[in-house]
Design brief:
CATH class of the largest domain: Mainly Alpha
Number of strands: 4
Distance between the termini: 24 Å
Strand content: 5-15%
Number of helices: 8
Helix content: 40-55%
Order of helices and strands: EHEHEEHHHHHH
Structural class: alpha+beta
CATH architecture of the largest domain: Up-down Bundle
Strand order of the largest sheet: 2-1-3-4
Radius of gyration: 17 Å
């Protein structure tokens, strides 16, 4: 398998899952700052011009964070990336989708790319403020989900990889995390898979 990623972006969560699985794989960094995602070489791999992208051993392309994470979990059952209980599976998928679709896409995208939401530069601070508000509300919801638990579905699952990457972003920009999220981030940072991923991406 081959994972296409960019250091520190959402693909870091899929990178962690690859390390959790422990199978041999190749990882190739895509230089988003240089616009490599729009160049023909990468467009030939993923016409969506996004990361993460995963090419499996049969040459099939997998894109979109939730789809890749779910596929990895189902094709590697020995890694226990999804709970056996159907209700806990649904919880893991719910939490993962909330992290990606709301905290990331609605919150952090406004913080990181305010120009995408504001036609005038003068409005960008307001856009960032709204993004911070959305992310903060999101972490409050995650804080409740994590109450009394080490991981979102009880044991580590694909949901925690998504929680990790938004928590990691919060820490990098100095956005305060509520107690349960902060403790979850520390548990994640202690996992060997996360430590190997951070080292591989030059973020250790």
């Amino acid at each position: 398998m081959k994972l296409y990623y960019a250091p520190g972006v959402c693909s870091i969560g899929i990178h962690v899952l690859m390390e959790e699985i422990g199978k041999s794989y190749e990882a190739e960094a895509v230089d988003l700052r240089a616009g490599a995602q729009y160049k023909p070489e990468y467009m030939a791999v993923n016409p969506k011009s996004k990361v993460p992208a995963l090419v499996d051993d049969a040459g099939t392309l997998r894109t979109e964070y939730p789809a890749i994470a779910y596929w990895l979990a189902r094709t590697n059952p020995f890694s226990n990336l999804l709970p056996d209980d159907i209700d806990l599976q649904a919880k893991a998928l719910e939490v993962m989708d909330y992290c990606v679709a709301t905290i990331h896409m609605q919150g952090f995208t406004r913080i990181f790319r305010p120009g995408n939401f504001a036609p005038n530069a003068a409005d960008e601070d307001a856009v960032k403020a709204r993004g911070t508000e959305i992310a903060t509300k999101g972490f409050a919801a995650l804080n409740e989900i994590l109450a009394g638990k080490d991981y979102a579905a009880g044991k580590f699952s694909i949901a925690d990889s998504a929680i990790f990457y938004v928590e990691f972003w919060a820490k990098r920009i100095g956005l305060a995390l509520p107690a349960n999220c902060a403790a979850h981030l520390e548990r994640m940072l202690a996992r060997p898979s996360v430590q190997r991923t951070l080292a591989a991406e030059g973020l250790a």
